[in-house]
Design goal:
Length: about 400
């Protein structure tokens, strides 16, 4: 198993009483709530935290894309990844991802990612997403075109990376007389592609196709639903005639570890509950606009996301396996159990969430890196070593 530190870069200085006037920290919350001087401090603090993960031996660090909200301050994640590319030396940098259907020109992503891949000497992981429903409100894009625009943009980018240019591309949504991307990718024939999702069955089937075999990431989901979606990917792969590897499956989950269970619960409680009830606050019509999902996928995603509806507590999300919290021994036991039962090869931990302050974030990163990761590396490497022997 490989270990990644995922950061959302939230606006941690948010006035938490905003919900007395507004129903969400997304789209409709006035940007007058944002103080650029505080933002300057936060951005540099968050970059320091991601860089620290490189020093502590993480396999990768992850950034992502969201628009017009206090939940995550990375509308253009390539800017963040670019800042990290020269200050890190060993970690993979995963951009998870760019929301392809929002773009009028997907070749921008082809160029951004190849620049990052060249600067880092091949440490880029390219994440492609459709973007959650709120992004379609933010950008004024028709959510009913989401799948079509995503697939066409994906095809254009992959061809731009792998086919000699110039060539012509003619599609329903994108039309280019010249596709001739400079620079070319450092990794040949292209960077690895990961597909984060909320659990769309169409996305799982598409990612598992033998022509792609992309790593599928399940984001912030109850453990029971995580197991269901991981099993679905494996069954789809089997239907295609191959066995999916653990390298093709990943899980993103918030986590907090401290000296004891009691200390971990006490320190994490106000910040995870703020994350759940303030930063994630969003009406269903904003999260899942009409046309965004098929009826089949809508039912599955609603079931998964229904687990985070209403007021959430640290106990309720821990019970569902949506938040891992405790002493190193407790966290090791939980993660080992989930990995054995579900069989994912990439673990993306959200080690800063909501209002978690710098000193607790740093402590969380250190204890996790020194007392959890090495244990799990040994445990998950053992079967491979035994098989080799």
């Amino acid at each position: 198993m490989k270990f990644y530190f995922m950061h959302l870069m939230p606006y941690a200085d948010l006035d938490l009483d905003y919900d007395q006037k507004y129903n969400s920290a997304w789209i409709t919350l006035p940007n007058s709530y944002y103080d650029p001087k505080k933002g300057h401090v936060l951005y540099n603090r968050y970059l320091d935290e991601l860089e620290y993960a490189d020093q502590l031996g993480f396999d990768g660090i992850c950034v992502n894309e969201h628009h017009q909200n206090a939940y995550g301050l990375m509308p253009i994640p390539a800017v963040t990844a670019g800042a990290l590319s020269r200050r890190t030396r060993n970690v993979k940098i995963a951009v998870l991802g760019r929301a392809l259907p929002l773009l009028n020109n997907p070749l921008v992503v082809a160029e951004e990612f190849t620049m990052l891949d060249n600067i880092t000497g091949g440490r880029l992981i390219a994440g492609f997403v459709r973007g959650i429903g709120a992004e379609y409100h933010a950008w004024g894009v028709n959510p009913a075109e989401s799948h079509g625009r995503f697939h066409e943009a994906h095809d254009l980018i992959v061809r731009a990376w792998t086919e000699p240019g110039p060539f012509t591309f003619e599609g329903k949504y994108y039309d280019f007389e010249y596709v001739n991307t400079w620079p070319r990718p450092y990794q040949q024939p292209r960077p690895p592609i990961w597909i984060p999702s909320q659990g769309s069955s169409e996305t799982i089937e598409w990612a598992a196709d033998p022509s792609r075999k992309y790593t599928y990431l399940q984001t912030f989901t109850p453990a029971a639903m995580l197991a269901k979606y991981m099993k679905m990917y494996k069954e789809v792969a089997e239907g295609y005639g191959y066995e999916a590897s653990e390298e093709q499956l990943g899980w993103s989950v918030p986590l907090y570890v401290a000296e004891t269970d009691e200390i971990a619960m006490r320190e994490a409680k106000p910040h995870i509950e703020t994350f759940l009830n303030k930063f994630l606050r969003m009406p269903k019509e904003m999260l899942l606009p009409p046309g965004y999902l098929s009826l089949k996928s809508m039912m599955g995603v609603m079931k998964a996301k229904g687990a985070i509806g209403g007021h959430q507590t640290i106990d309720s999300v821990m019970e569902k396996g949506m938040f891992i919290c405790g002493s190193p021994a407790t966290v090791r036991e939980k993660l080992e159990q989930y990995q054995k039962e579900i069989g994912f090869g990439h673990l993306l931990t959200l080690l800063q969430f909501g209002t978690l302050p710098a000193e607790l974030t740093r402590k969380n990163i250190e204890i996790y890196a020194k007392e959890v990761m090495p244990y799990l590396r040994d445990k998950t490497a053992a079967p491979v070593a035994a098989a080799g022997a």
